[in-house]
Specification:
The chain is about 40% helix and about 15% strand. The chain is of the alpha/beta class. The longest helix has 18 residues, at about 105-120. The two termini are about 15 Å apart.
Length: about 250
C-alpha cells in the first residue's frame, strides 16, 4: 500500500477523467490520497472529491499564492469547516518567496493565523515552503503545532533536520526523479527513512519520465521505486515505512 500525501485530485485538470484517474491510482496500489485545499472557494470541491473517492482525505487551508485574494473572514470559515468536516490536516498553507508579485505580509498573516487554527484544533499542517524554509521555521518555533509535512522539500540538510526536530516529515515526489536534481537526490538517499513521505502533487510536479505532461497519482509507485533505488533498498520497504510515517504524523488517516 502507498499513501500519496499531497494530490490535488479536485483540480480542473482532472475534470474530464477524474473517475478514471482515481481508479487507476487505486489499481496501482495508492490506497490513500490527501487532497489539500488552496482557498475557501475550493473547500467544497475538495470535500466533495473526498466523499466520492474511497481513500481520499481532505485537508483544508489557504495557500500562500491565494493569500492576496483571501479575506480575514475566510479564517472564520476555515475554523467552522474544521469543526464540521473533520479534515485530516490544515493545508496547503505556508509561504512562497519564489514567485514575484505576491504580498509577503499577506502570506505571513494567513500562514500564522492558520498555524493557530492547527494548534487549537490539534491538527498537523501541510506546508508549502518554496524559498521560505527559514521564515517558516521561525514561525513554527513560535506557534507550536503537532507537526505535519513539509511538502516538496528542497532545502538544506540543516533545514531538514530542523523540520524533523519540530515533528515534521519531508515530502518527496517527482522532482527527486530528475538526475540533475543532485542535492535533492542526496537528501532522499541519506535522510532517515523515517523522516520521508511520498507525494505526487498531481497534476503538478511531474516526474522525469513524463516531462511536462499532467502528473497523476497513479505514478506514485514509480516515484517510490526511484526512492528505493536511491537508497538501495526494496520497494516494499519504502512503501511500508513511508506509509507508516504518513500515518504517524497525520493521525486521522483511515
Amino acid at each position: 500500500m502507498l499513501i500519496d500525501t499531497h494530490c490535488h485530485l479536485d483540480a480542473a485538470e482532472f475534470d474530464l477523467d477524474r473517475d478514471q484517474v482515481a481508479a487507476a491510482a487505486r489499481a496501482a496500489g495508492v490506497e490513500i490520497q490527501i487532497v489539500p485545499a488552496v482557498e475557501k472557494d475550493n473547500f467544497a470541491a475538495v470535500l466533495d472529491c473526498c466523499r466520492r473517492y474511497p481513500g481520499c482525505c481532505p485537508a483544508l487551508g489557504i495557500h500562500p499564492m491565494y493569500a492576496d485574494r483571501a479575506q480575514p473572514a475566510d479564517l472564520d470559515d476555515l475554523r467552522a469547516a474544521v469543526a464540521l468536516e473533520k479534515p485530516v490536516a490544515i493545508g496547503e498553507i505556508g509561504l512562497d518567496f519564489f514567485v514575484p508579485g505576491y504580498d509577503p505580509e499577506a502570506q505571513e498573516f494567513y500562514f500564522t493565523e492558520q498555524l493557530k487554527i492547527a494548534r487549537d484544533s490539534g491538527l498537523p499542517v501541510l506546508l508549502h515552503i518554496r524559498r521560505a524554509q527559514d521564515p517558516i521555521l521561525k514561525h513554527l518555533r513560535r506557534i507550536r503545532v503537532r507537526g505535519g509535512i513539509a511538502h516538496a522539500f528542497n532545502g538544506s540538510r540543516q533545514q531538514a533536520d530542523e523540520f524533523i526536530k519540530l515533528g515534521f516529515r519531508l515530502g518527496f515526489g517527482g522532482a527527486m526523479t530528475y538526475p540533475r536534481a543532485t542535492r535533492l537526490r542526496e537528501l532522499a538517499a541519506t535522510l532517515p527513512l523515517e523522516a520521508i513521505v511520498l507525494e505526487t502533487d498531481a497534476p503538478d510536479m511531474a516526474p522525469a519520465w513524463i516531462g511536462k505532461a499532467r502528473n497523476s497519482p497513479e505514478y506514485l509507485p514509480q516515484i517510490a521505486q526511484a526512492l528505493a533505488e536511491l537508497r538501495g533498498i526494496a520497494l516494499e520497504e519504502v512503501a511500508r515505512v513511508t506509509s507508516a510515517n504518513a500515518r504517524a504524523v497525520v493521525n486521522r488517516l483511515p
